[in-house]
Amino acid sequence: MTTEIIYQGELRCKATHERSKTVIATDAPVDNKGKGAAFSPSDLLAVALGTCIITTIGIKTDDWASESSFEGTRIEVTKTMSQDPRRVGQLDVDIYPPAGIQLDDKQRQIAENIAHTCPVAKSLHSDLKQNITFHW
Fold it and tell me: A Pfam family in this protein (predicted)?
């Protein structure tokens, strides 16, 4: 995967995914001299964790029965910053599978294990607290 990133000045960047040409804009947050007009780089870290969790669950569960589908799952990620040095200190991930999903205990455990072991979760520093909660 290759991404081209162009600094546009005023603490804004444009990142282009080479293969798809999808563009993401970033802006520094208002508490760090930015305008908060787009995702901040640390916001994208939170987005990366949430989307990695559900994508990895989807990869594992795509061949499960349709009543066990995670399609429509909603995820809320709340980012808390820490200081000295400034960094993401905590990510609270709340996962809301679709109403009516039918999973046995083993399937729920598989999904919960995936959430804690997806590639992004395993790539984050151990000092970053990850609170992952499924709302079954």
Answer: OsmC
